[in-house]
Amino acid sequence: MSGAVPMRDDYSGEALRRLAAVACDGGQSRRLMALAAIADGKNRTQAAAIGLMDRQTLRDWVIRFNEQGPEGLINKKASGRPSKLTAEQRRELAEIVKKGPADYVPGLIR
């Protein structure tokens, strides 16, 4: 079994806490606080508890932090499900929406 993934050392625990205090993303702030705990010498189990995650998840974030720095701790937007409409169908739908509702449709009460 290998040891803990080493964390980059160009950020002190205090610097990470300052970044966490001004972070706009709540997840990034939690992750920065967990990494600050590691920088301060806490073990990975304690740091994971501070970040409200398990140790494996903390390890993944340490790797991402090492590669990308603090910006790497922000969740990326998920791409979502691909559209079922083709580009042509989306254009047609946009035209229908732009026209608005029909003035009179027999049997329809609005």
Give an overview in words.
The protein has 110 residues and is mainly α. The protein has a domain at 13-73. 53% of the residues lie in helices and 0% in strands. It contains five helices and no strands. The protein has helices at residues 13-22, 26-39, 44-50, 55-68, 87-99. α2 packs antiparallel against α3 (44-50) and α3 packs across α4 (55-68). The protein is elongated, with a radius of gyration of 24 Å. The mean pLDDT is 91.
Task: Based on the model shown, name its key terms.
mainly alpha; 53% helix; 110 residues; elongated; 5 helices
Write the layout of secondary structure elements.
Elements: H1 13-22, H2 26-39, H3 44-50, H4 55-68, H5 87-99
Summarize the structure.
This protein is mainly alpha-helical. It has helices spanning 13-22, 26-39, 44-50, 55-68, 87-99.
Query: β content, as a range?
Result: under 5%
- Note the overall shape: elongated
Quickly count the helices.
5
Poorly predicted ranges:
none
Largest sheet: none
Helix amount: 40-55%
Q: Radius of gyration in whole Å, from Cα?
A: 24 Å
Strand count: 0
Order of helices and strands: HHHHH
Broad structural category: mainly alpha
The overall pLDDT, averaged over residues, is 91
- For the record, give the distance between the C-alpha atoms at the N and C termini, rounded to a whole number: 68 Å
